[in-house]
Amino acid sequence: MASSIIALLLFLSSPFISFAAAQAAKTFIFRIDGGSMPSIFPTHYHWYSTEFAEESRILHVYHTAFHGFSAVVTPDEADNLRNHPAVLAVFEDRRRELHTTRSPQFLGLQNQKGLWSESDYGSDVIIGVFDTGIWPERRSFSDLNLGPIPKRWRGVCESGARFGPRNCNRKIVGARFFAKGQQAAVIGGINKTVEFLSPRDADGHGTHTSSTAAGRHVFKASMSGYASGVAKGVAPKARIAAYKVCWKESGCLDSDILAAFDAAVRDGVDVISISIGGGDGITSPYYLDPIAIGSYGAASKGIFVSSSAGNEGPNGMSVTNLAPWVTTVGASTIDRNFPADAILGDGHRLRGVSLYAGVPLNGRMFPVVYPGKSGMSSASLCMENTLDPKHVRGKIVICDRGSSPRVAKGLVVKKAGGVGMILANGASNGEGLVGDAHLIPACAVGSNEGDRIKAYASSHPNPIASIDFRGTIVGIKPAPVIASFSGRGPNGLSPEILKPDLIAPGVNILAAWTDAVGPTGLPSDPRKTEFNILSGTSMACPHVSGAAALLKSAHPDWSPAAIRSAMMTTTNLVDNSNRSLIDESTGKSATPYDYGSGHLNLGRAMDPGLVYDITNDDYITFLCSIGYGPKTIQVITRTPVRCPTRRKPSPGNLNYPSITAVFPTSTRGLVSKTVIRTATNVGQAEAVYRARLESPRGVTVTVKPPRLVFTSAVKRRSYAVTVTVDTRNVVLGETGAAFGSVTWFDGGKHVVRSPVVVTQMDTL
Question: Could you tell me the pTM of the whole model?
Answer without folding.
Answer: 0.93
